[in-house]
């Protein structure tokens, strides 16, 4: 059997297909056949300028994947051929004794100094087939979906898990609360749908570009959803929309730019939770974005909470699996229109479309 791999030769380079012989899975391993991959904004960054975590080129990108189990190795009982699975990006280090990743670990993989990420240290899914090692199968973020489940939904397990990590880390910060989402990209659109599912009182979406904001409001809006253009009056307009409350309860930064991190603290009030969700990064690493916090007056007396989520643990993966399997995001298909669907030989075009300011969720179909 042959597997075709789409290698990116270098940042800003080209994808080149390569055929390789496909081995049988060993003990504890499973072999996957890629069905759909959705494009993350980190894929856009890697394609355009690279990332320090990627040490070797050519590289295999794409980590938001849904696959069918193609074959299982000896001893595997939790999966069988024909199962549809979705995968997370952040994965354990493979050390069974690790206090974070191992047999008796906490599951906080992003705290492990040796953690891996798919599409970074672990090869991504820009390939027709992949074999998962036994430790990934045993400990890793891999979830089986019901028979007949839509693979285009299953490949969105990982980005949805990242979103839910941020929205559920602090208890009761969404239900019956005012939620502010900075940016109107895919993560804010996931967050908007999750906030609706979790019965937020009002959801305020802020964006600079009118076209994508209009699309999100048109397709995912409702009586409790408000869009605000990101201009010089944005702070004033957000506070007006928070009435009769004095301030928002939850602010999520979903725009990976310094300006979003400058805006978010201006929206903090009494008891506000801020989730710094979209990190700012590039080929040179992560720039320092400073903000002064008064630990006594802001944190203690105003009960403000500053948190961040990047990546996802099994808790987020399980939550996302639950939301998807139960159909709690009934409009998720609207995140991908006809201009955002591509075939396996059009990865470069798919990434280019994902970089457009009016795009939401690009999906690549591996047929």
UniProtKB/TrEMBL annotation:
GO molecular-function terms, A-Z: oxidoreductase activity
Keywords: Oxidoreductase
Top-rank taxon: Bacteria
UniProt-listed Gene3D superfamilies: Medium-chain alcohol dehydrogenases, catalytic domain, NAD(P)-binding Rossmann-like Domain
Limits of the Alcohol dehydrogenase-like N-terminal domain: 26-136
The keyword Repressor appears for this protein: no
SUPFAM superfamilies: GroES-like, NAD(P)-binding Rossmann-fold domains
Keyword Oxidoreductase: yes
Name the record gives this protein: Alcohol dehydrogenase-like N-terminal domain-containing protein
Lineage: Bacteria, Pseudomonadati, Planctomycetota, Planctomycetia, Pirellulales
């Amino acid at each position: 059997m042959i597997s075709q791999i789409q290698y990116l030769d270098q940042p800003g380079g080209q994808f080149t297909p390569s055929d390789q012989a496909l081995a049988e899975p060993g003990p504890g391993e499973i072999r996957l056949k890629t069905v759909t991959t959705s494009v993350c904004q980190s894929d856009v960054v890697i394609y355009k300028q690279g990332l320090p975590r990627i040490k070797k080129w050519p590289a295999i990108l794409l980590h938001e994947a849904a696959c069918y189990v193609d074959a299982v190795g000896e001893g595997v009982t939790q999966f069988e051929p024909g199962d549809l699975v979705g995968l997370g990006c952040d994965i354990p280090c493979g050390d069974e004794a690790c206090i974070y990743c191992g047999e008796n670990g906490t599951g906080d993989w992003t705290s492990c100094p040796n953690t891996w990420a798919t599409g970074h240290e672990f090869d991504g899914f820009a390939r027709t087939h992949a074999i998962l090692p036994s430790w990934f199968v045993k400990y890793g973020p891999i979830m089986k979906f019901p028979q007949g489940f839509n693979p285009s939904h299953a490949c969105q397990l990982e980005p949805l898990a990242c979103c839910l990590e941020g929205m559920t880390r602090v208890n009761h910060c969404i239900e019956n609360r005012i939620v502010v989402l900075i940016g109107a990209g895919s993560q804010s659109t996931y967050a908007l749908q999750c906030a609706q599912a979790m019965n937020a009182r009002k959801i305020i979406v802020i964006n600079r570009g009118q076209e994508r904001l209009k699309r999100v409001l048109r397709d995912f809006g409702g009586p409790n959803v408000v869009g605000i253009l990101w201009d010089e009056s944005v702070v004033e307009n957000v506070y007006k929309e928070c009435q009769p409350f004095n301030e928002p309860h939850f602010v999520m930064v979903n725009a990976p730019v310094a300006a979003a991190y400058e805006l978010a603290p201006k929206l903090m009030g009494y008891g506000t939770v801020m989730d710094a969700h979209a990190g700012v990064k590039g080929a040179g690493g992560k720039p320092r974005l400073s903000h002064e916090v008064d630990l006594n007056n802001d944190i203690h007396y105003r009960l403000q909470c500053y948190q961040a989520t990047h990546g996802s643990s099994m808790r987020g993966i399980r939550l996302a699996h639950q939301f998807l399997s139960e159909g709690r995001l009934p409009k998720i298909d609207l995140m991908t229109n006809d201009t955002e669907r591509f075939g396996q030989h059009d990865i470069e075009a798919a990434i280019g479309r994902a970089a457009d300011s009016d795009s939401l969720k690009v999906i690549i179909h591996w047929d």
